[in-house]
Design brief:
40% helix; Rossmann fold; 12 helices; four-stranded parallel sheet; 2 domains; alpha/beta; 12 strands
């Protein structure tokens, strides 16, 4: 198996962004660090994409990766880290340096454009003000939205690559309904980005298609963290007697649910089945292993980078593309067998 920039970062005990800068001879990395990283890369047979430097219009070979504030607030959870690392990996293989910029106050994009430090952007930002969006469009710089589409872009023609969240919510609801569950507690999250709202919409669609009424009184809201999933269960113990399944709309909340149910001596899946969302590596760290909806973030990252390169090369007819990649259900122990 070939070594990746993530592997090099782990060996060198530096960030993946630092590895990217060193491998691309960025002036933002010290000479000493560059030499150490290059030595590790050479010793382990790291290979660049040989076609990357064929770009005609690229000047800085640097891409701005704009992250949401939530990634910083939550200390880069496993799911968020996977998205960031995969995007950096793809860009580094294409011989691009990456400036990772958490979006504090919306001005970072405008500053990076004005300073001419980047050739393009990949934007994982659920919210964007209209001034920044107007500035992006007028600047004629290449950019692709990934994962989130800010409200200001809903009626604009932009490039956007994402997972089909409605389909994911549908798959989760359908799986539980096919197992015979009808009294299903849904735990969503009231956070920016709109993904959780779409997952709820998809779940409701599965109920509708299976002629089962969706009970809005069984729709609760956490904040997407492990703690919120845990606390919602502990604060609603009496409600658990009336349900047979729980769909927590991300893995962290779902694992919090599993932990709370264990403390209450409620068996999963015998008493209550549980489905999560994101299919992070944490799903197999808990017992029982968590059934989850897999977001194909590696495919999305690859397609996002590919589309950005096309824009930088001025290929095609400049028609904007919106690509929705389909999620998949990954069945594990937490949902068990069909109800008797």
């Amino acid at each position: 198996m070939s070594i990746t920039t993530k592997d090099i970062a782990r060996i060198a005990n530096v960030s993946q962004s630092t590895v990217s800068r060193c491998l691309n001879n960025s002036p933002f990395a010290s000479e000493k660090t560059k030499q150490r990283i290059l030595k590790i890369a050479e010793e382990h047979g790291f290979q660049f994409n040989a076609n990357a430097r064929s770009l005609k219009v690229n000047k800085t070979y640097t891409i701005g990766l704009i992250l949401p504030q939530s990634m910083v607030d939550h200390g880069f959870d496993v799911h968020s880290r996977a998205w960031q690392d995969t995007l950096i990996e793809n860009l580094t293989q294409l011989q691009f340096d990456v400036i990772v910029s958490p979006s504090f106050g919306q001005s970072n994009i405008r500053k990076l454009i004005a300073s001419q430090k980047v050739d393009g952007f990949i934007i994982l930002q659920p919210e964007l003000d209209i001034e920044t969006m107007d500035y992006l469009e007028k600047s004629d710089i290449a950019y692709v939205f990934c994962k989130y589409l800010p409200d200001v872009c809903k009626n604009r023609d932009v490039d956007y690559v994402h997972a089909d969240q409605i389909k994911g919510g549908y798959l989760a609801g359908e799986h539980l309904l096919k197992l015979g569950h009808k009294k299903i507690l849904c735990i969503s999250a009231d956070v920016a980005g709109g993904e959780f709202k779409l997952r709820t919409e998809g779940c409701k669609g599965a109920f509708y298609d299976h002629n089962v009424p969706f009970n809005d009184k069984l729709l609760f809201f956490g904040d997407s963290t492990f703690t919120s999933g845990f606390q919602l269960i502990k604060k609603n113990v009496d409600l658990l007697k009336s349900i047979t399944a729980i769909f927590a709309q991300n893995d962290l909340m779902a694992l919090g649910v599993l932990s709370a149910l264990r403390e209450l001596h409620i068996k999963v899946p015998e008493d209550i089945a549980v489905v999560g969302y994101d299919n992070t590596e944490l799903c197999t760290y808990f017992s029982p292993n968590l059934t989850s909806i897999h977001q194909p973030y590696k495919e999305i990252a690859l397609l996002t980078c590919k589309r950005l390169i096309e824009l930088l090369e001025n290929k095609g007819d400049h028609v904007k593309q919106k690509l929705a990649i389909q999620p998949k259900l990954v069945v594990r122990e937490s949902t068990g067998n069909m109800l008797p």
